[in-house]
Amino acid sequence: MLEETIDLQSIQRRDRQAWALLYDSLVHGTFGLIWKLTGGDRLVCEDLNQETWLAAIDSIEDFDPQRGNLKSWVFGIARNKAIQHLRRAYRDRATEHVSLLADEPLDNSASADLPSTVLETNERAALIQAALATLPEERRDVLHCKYVEGHSVKQIAKKSGKTPKAVESMLSRARGELRDLLQWTLS
Q1: Which CATH class is domain 2-134?
Q2: What is the pTM of this model?
Q3: pLDDT tens-place string over residues 83-94
């Protein structure tokens, strides 16, 4: 267990060796989480991972061991950085799209004029897209065929060369993975 090998007081005193040990034990996990949530752009993931660790160092005084362990706290920071990135990216794309439609420049403050429910809905849509992007291609495709294209299980089975039972199983696994990702991401 991480807390057994890393002295929390040393971390809070910003001891370099303690931070190096913490970083070495968690950096690949935080990178993987960010990768999974953002869709896997290596440069973006590296930047967000770096931001995660800088934020952890800056806010170590806020860590309360009564509320959870150090690993969960650091992973929570990584999750928040990834979500913030997705929200910014979605807003930038939406603003750019509206600018193109309007055929005139639109400043970024325009999104602040939209009702918060529209922004929240759009943010959720971006998070769902990011979660879908983390699924294996075959599962993503079967969800698309079923729920976007409206094909029946039999039609998907015929198209993919699988049995209807295999398609149902794949749909069930894909929905379960997507549900788990979204519950974790949206909570």
Answers
A1: mainly alpha
A2: 0.52
A3: 888 888 776 665
